Amino acid sequence: MLNQVILVGRLVKNPQLEQIGDSEFARITVACPRSYKNEEGVYETDFIDVILKGGIATNTVEYCRKGDLIGIKARIENGINSDEYPNAKMNIVAERITFLASNNARTNTNNNENCNNNDLERGEI
Length: 125
Prior knowledge:
The chain is an alpha+beta fold. It is 17% helix and 47% strand. The chain is built from three helices and six strands; from the N terminus they run ββββαββαα.
């Protein structure tokens, strides 16, 4: 069985780090254009919410800004653990983020170029 989601899109706003207890996380929204045109000949865009946890959240908040192009490997998980509504809410939870392109000129681009995707996945930079 397989539970995997792959997304490529642009950040809708700057990510912000949040904390619950000892756990750090971030919620981001990614704008993902569809690969086909609608009846009016326009490409529609889906806005998809994604949850980032731990080091992935910390690194994304530090290195990514609104408009940056990112790739996400994620899974879908149940958001509510209840016998009454077991599948009422589904969340997309990132397992890996790849920083593809930046819309912003920043002075820390050398730091971003010196890390690899495995470091980002583990939250090490």
